[in-house]
Amino acid sequence: MIPAANRALPAVPSLPAVPGWAQPRGRVSSDVEAAFIAGAALNSLDNLVRIAPLWAGAWRQRLALKCAATAVSIVGRTEDEAALRDAWYLRPVNGDPGPAGRVFEAWKRLASRSPGIDSASLKSTVGWMGIHGGDELEPLMERVAALGRSSEPAPIAAAAMVIEVMAIRPDAELLGWWLADQVVALKLRWPLPVPLLVSQARSSAFREEGGRSRRIRPGEEGFERGVCVALAQAAAEACRLAADIAPRAARLEGAVPKLRAKGAGEAIRLLLDEDAVPGTLQTAHLTRWGARRLFERLVALDAVRELSGRSAFKLYGL
What Pfam family is a match, any one (predicted)? Predict the structure, then answer.
C-alpha cells in the first residue's frame, strides 16, 4: 500500500460556474426573473456539489466562515472572518471559542453533517446561537423535513422556513437562515448542506425598491423574491470560491510526491477538509517542528497560503 503522504491525489475536474446572465445585475423587480436566475444558479451549484472534489470539505468550511461572519454581525458583534478563525483554531483543545466562535461552530456543523435535524442537533444549535429557551422550536424539526419533501421550489421552501422561525421566535433569525440551508440541501438531495443564505441576509437582495436602506424582513412583501436573488448571489460566490481553491488543491496534488515528512498525509487531509490548520499542528505521527517545516514547504510550492498574516500563531489553508 502506498503511504498516504506519497499517494497522489486525483486531478481536479473542470468546475461549473454560474453564467453571467444568471447573476443579478441591478435591481431584480420581477418574481419571474428572480425565480429564473435562482434556478439557473442553483443548477450550476448542484453540478459542482455532485462532482464532490477532494477539497469540498475545505470549500464548505470556508463558506461556513463567510456565513458566520455575517451571522455575528446580525446579532451586533464585530468579529470578522479573521477573528472567527482565531477564536476557533487557536483555542485550547476542547476550549470554549466564545460567543462568536460558537456561532461559527453552528455553521461548521451545518457544513459537515447530513441535512435534516433532530432534537439533539436543534438543542445544540440553539445553544451555540445564544437563543434562550427553545421548547417552542421543537416543531421545526418536522417542518424542515416536510418542506424538504414538499413540491415547493427550493428558494420558496427556504423562504417559508425563515418566515416560520421568525413567527415563532422573532429573536431567532440566525436559526431561520441556518434551517433554510438545511431545506435547500434536502430539496436538492445534497449529501451535505452548503452554507449559503445568511451570507446574503444584508445584501441588496433584501433592499426595498427605490434605493431605501431598510431591509425587507421575513414575511414582508418581496421576501420570497429576495431569497431567490440571495440564492443566485450565494451560488455564484460559492462557485467563484471553488474556482479559487481548485488550482491550489491541484498544486497540493503535485506537491504530495515531494513531501518526506512523516505524518504529512494527516496534515494534507486536514487541509482538504478544513478552512484552516494551525501551524502548531501536532499528531501521533507529526511533531510541531515537523508541521512547521511541512507548511513552510507547502507555502514555498504555492500549494497552501498562510492565512493570518502574522509571524506567530500562523494558520494555513488552501
Answer: DUF1403
308/296 Cα distance (integer angstroms): 14
Which cell is 8 given? 497522489
Dist CA 274 CA 104 (whole Å): 13
DSSP for 38-102, written as a single string:
HHHHHHHHHHHHHH--TTHHHHHHHHHHHHHHHHHHHTT----HHHHHHHHHTSPTT---HHHHH
User: Residue 193: phi, psi to the nearest 5?
Assistant: -65, 155
Which pLDDT band holds residue 270 (cuts at 50, 70, 90)?
A: very high
Residues 129-179 have pLDDT tens digits of 999 877 899 999 999 999 999 999 999 999 999 999 999 999 999 999 999
**Three-state SS at 317:** strand
CA-nearest of 103, 109, 114 to 185 is 114
Q: Running DSSP on this structure, what letter comes out for residue 111?
A: T
For 56-85, the pLDDT digits (tens) are: 999 999 999 999 999 999 999 999 999 999
pLDDT > 80? residue 208: no
Secondary element (H or E) of residue 108 = helix 98-110
Written as nine digits, the cell of 134 is 427553545
DSSP state of 103: H
Residue 148: CB partners within 8 Å, gap ≥ 6? 115, 116, 157, 182, 183, 186, 187
Give residue-wise pLDDT tens across range 82-102: 999 999 999 988 899 999 999
| pTM (predicted TM-score) | 0.91
Q: DSSP of 182-233, one letter per residue?
A: HHHHHHHT-SS----GGGGTTSGGGBPTTS--PBPPTTSTTHHHHHHHHHHH
- Measured over the CA atoms of residue 152, residue 179, residue 116 and residue 141, the dihedral's sign is negative
Residue 208 phi/psi, 5-degree rounding, is -65, 155
